[in-house]
Design a protein that fits this description.
16% strand, alpha/beta, 10 helices, isomerase, IolE/XylAMocC-like, isomerase activity, 280 residues, Xyl_isomerase-like_sf, TIM Barrel, Xyl_isomerase-like_TIM-brl, single chain
C-alpha cells in the first residue's frame, strides 16, 4: 500500500490566513508546502467588506504572477449563496476572475428553504460555471437550508450536472446528523476537496453559537474532540484536504506560523489514519 501522504494534496483555506493579501497567502502556502490555496472574492457576511481582487486588475495580475512564480494553484474561490432571488448572471465578473486565477472550485452555500427552487438555481449556476471550467461545491452547514450531507448530496444528484459536488467541512459534519457511512457511499465524482478543522464535544448548538465557532473559534486538527482520523479514512485517499482553521487566539501568531501549524497537524492525522488502515 502506498503512503497516503504521497498522494495527498493540501490546500490553505482563506479563513486560516484571512488577514493577509492573496499574494501573501500564495507565498505562505508555497513556503509551507501546500499545493493549493483558497481565495475569497465575495463577502460571506452582510457586514463584511468587499474584496479588492474582484475588481482590481493590478491585484489580479499580481496574484497571477505569484501563482506562476510559486506553482501554487487556486483550489477554490468563495462564496456564492443561493438565495430565493438568486440570479447567476449577476456573478459573471466573479466567474471571470475565478477563471483568470485558474481556480477549480466554487464554494456554494444553500440559503433557500424551497427545495425545488434551490435545486433549479444550483443546476443553472452549475451550467453557467461549467463555461468557466469551475465546479460548484455545495457546502452543507447546520444553520443554512442545506443542513447535512444527505441533503447536500440529494441536491447535487438532482441537479444532474457533471460539475456539481458536495463539500464536506469536518466541523459541520460533526455538528450535523451526517454519518461516516454516508461519506463512504458518496461517489468520488461528487467530491473534490474537504475542509478540516477540529472542535470541542460540547458547544452552543444555536445558530448564533455555531456561526461564531465556525468563523472564529475552530481548533487545530488533532487538538479537539472530532474524530478526524475516522473521517479521513472514510474519504478517497487522493482527495485534497484543506486547512480551514479561523481561531482568534491563533490569529495572534504570524500567518506563516498558523499555516505551518495546521499543515503539520493535518499531515500527522493522515499518517495516523494510514497507520490505522494498515493495522486494520
Amino acid at each position: 500500500m502506498q503512503p497516503e501522504s504521497k498522494q495527498r494534496q493540501y490546500s490553505l483555506s482563506f479563513l486560516t490566513v484571512a488577514d493577509v493579501s492573496p499574494v501573501e497567502a500564495i507565498q505562505i502556502a508555497a513556503e509551507c508546502g501546500y499545493a493549493q490555496v483558497g481565495l475569497r472574492l465575495l463577502p460571506a457576511a452582510p457586514n463584511e467588506a468587499d474584496y479588492p481582487i474582484l475588481t482590481d486588475a493590478t491585484l489580479i495580475r499580481e496574484t497571477q504572477a505569484a501563482l506562476a512564480d510559486t506553482g501554487v494553484k487556486v483550489a477554490d474561490v468563495e462564496i456564492i449563496r443561493l438565495t430565493p432571488d438568486f440570479d447567476g448572471q449577476k456573478y459573471i465578473q466573479f466567474l471571470e476572475v475565478a477563471e483568470q486565477l485558474g481556480a477549480k472550485h466554487i464554494l456554494i452555500a444553500g440559503n433557500d428553504t424551497e427545495h425545488q427552487r434551490l435545486v433549479e438555481n444550483y443546476a443553472a449556476f452549475c451550467e453557467l460555471s461549467q463555461q468557466y471550467h469551475l465546479s460548484c461545491d455545495l457546502e452543507f452547514m447546520p444553520w443554512t437550508a442545506v443542513k447535512n450531507l444527505q441533503h447536500a448530496q440529494q441536491i447535487v444528484t438532482q441537479s444532474g450536472q457533471k460539475n456539481a459536488a458536495v463539500l464536506i467541512d469536518s466541523l459541520h459534519f460533526d455538528r450535523s446528523d451526517s454519518t461516516l457511512e454516508q461519506v463512504k457511499a458518496l461517489p468520488t465524482t461528487q467530491m473534490n476537496y474537504v475542509q478540516l478543522c477540529d472542535g470541542l464535544a460540547e458547544y452552543d448548538p444555536s445558530d448564533e453559537g455555531l456561526i461564531k465557532i465556525a468563523r472564529s473559534n475552530r481548533l487545530v486538527p488533532g487538538q479537539g474532540e472530532i474524530d478526524l482520523i475516522s473521517l479521513i479514512r472514510a474519504l478517497p485517499k487522493d482527495i485534497t484536504l484543506a486547512a480551514e482553521v479561523p481561531n482568534l487566539a491563533l490569529a495572534k501568531r504570524p500567518a506563516l506560523q498558523r499555516a505551518q501549524i495546521n499543515l503539520q497537524a493535518i499531515q500527522q492525522l493522515v499518517a495516523l489514519a494510514e497507520a490505522d488502515a494498515i493495522a486494520g
